[in-house]
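In this section we walk through a basic example: taking a raw amino acid sequence and producing a predicted 3D structure, encoded as discrete structure tokens. The instruction is simple. Fold the sequence below.
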Amino acid sequence: MLLDLIYGKYKTVSIVGLAKNTGKTVALNHIIQEAAGRDMVLGLISTGRDGEAIDLITEKEKPQIYVEAGSIIATTSLLLPLAEATIEIIKATEHRTPLGEVVIGRVIDGGYVQIGGPQTAAGIREVVNTILGLGADLVLIDGAMDRRASAAPSISQATILSTGAVLSRDMDRVIEETLHMVNLFSLPAIEDYREREIIKRAFMKGQVAIMDKGLNIAPIPIKTPLNSGTIIGNHIKDDTKYLLIPSSLATSTVEGIINSGGEYRNIYIVVADGTKIFIPCQEWLKFMQQAVKVKVLNPINIVAITINPYSPEGYYFDPKEFLDKTRYYIEDIPVVDLMLGVNWG
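The resulting token sequence is shown next.
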């Protein structure tokens, strides 16, 4: 059971899909159903919008979200009237979205709902903390579409990753992309306490910088690391230990650093966590072969992977083969097809 992997261990858990139609909402509903039989208060929030019967982009049917009485949800002023459940508004927040103001409510009578939330990580974190303060034992954060930022350790303590056939008609390609995301989310962390504290303070300033072996910080005079890899590479010296990237790490930045001819092989690039890396699988493998090394301030705790062998485009994989093959390549994390039944193997 998915709930057994998280309940009593974590207060905040994100469910992140690698794309639309990977089965993220199925995983969400599975946990909701499991929680219904226990004496616990569940909280729900989305980084976008979820729970609608018809996907507004693909115009295909999608699973709705049924919540039990006593649950605490975040939604918006425009989504609230669409709920079949009876919801008592507890708090109106100051966060506004294209779907209206974000509000927090308690479910009085169970029924179908649509959930929403703020559009920033800080906003999500604030609303999650409010829901916890109102008595939720566990808050599930729905990572709408492929907004993997909800997996960031600053927002959720654990993450369930949803993947599936929609990523590619090639099963091996789907597994490769899934393993790539697992690898990004599991990058090694900066372990030295003093280094961590210095890097945290540097990240708060939002400046790309280098840290030497004496732990001195020197900002690099650029506005963004995008398309600035050559400039960054030219600042790497013999005594450089870390290159600090407080924003996103993209392919073009790493390519520029490599092409600059600097001593990049002797340093670690440091980002906040794996959600900040936007480098496709093949490019990532190439960079690893070129001795690029990356660490994070906070690794992401993936507690389970759910798989969906069916694509809305009409093709599908053999469910048992897909499950067995994914488990073969991803050994250390429970992998489950919720439609086949929960068997951790």
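Looking at the output, two observations stand out. The chain has a mean pLDDT of 91. Residues 193-296 form one domain. In the next section we compare this with other chains.
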